[in-house]
Amino acid sequence: MKNFHPTGNCPVRDVLSRLGDKWSMLVLTTLSANGTMRFSDIHKTIDDISQRMLTVTLRTLESDGLVHRKVYPEVPPRVEYCLTEMGTTLMPHIQNLVDWALGHMDEILTSRETAKG
What rounded mean pLDDT belongs to the chain? Predict the structure, then answer.
């Protein structure tokens, strides 16, 4: 594979470990589909996620530069989240992965059953 270096500090492994957690891809796809959203709206859309886990996931994605957090100086405070330009450029690649997974899920499940014996 071109430009792939399977070392301990491989950037691909780092990105995939982040995106491969339980919630990051759901948060990213939710923001991609809906645009700018408030915390409560994201939480309603992804109803299985706890408020704490959503907070942690948003902070992590923000620290990676994929999500932008905007705080408005209002009372009560209003906070909105959206994808950054970098986050937006990631979405076609996530969509390709989603399409691949959907197209091969039956084969994957069959293979898993076969491997179980």
Answer: 93
Residue ranges in the chain whose pLDDT is less than 70: 1-8
Closest Cα partner for 27 from 85, 91, 86?
91
Please state, as a whole number, how many other Cβ atoms lie within 10 Å of the Cβ of residue 58.
21
Considering the entire predicted model, what is its pTM?
0.85
DSSP 3-state of 35: coil
**CATH code for the structural domain at 11-116:** 1.10.10.10
> Using CA atoms, how far apart are residues 103 and 8, in angstroms rounded to an integer?
31
Rounded to whole angstroms, what are the CA distances from 78 to 39, 53, 60, 75?
A: 9, 19, 20, 8
Q: What are the sequence ranges of the domains in the chain?
A: 11-116
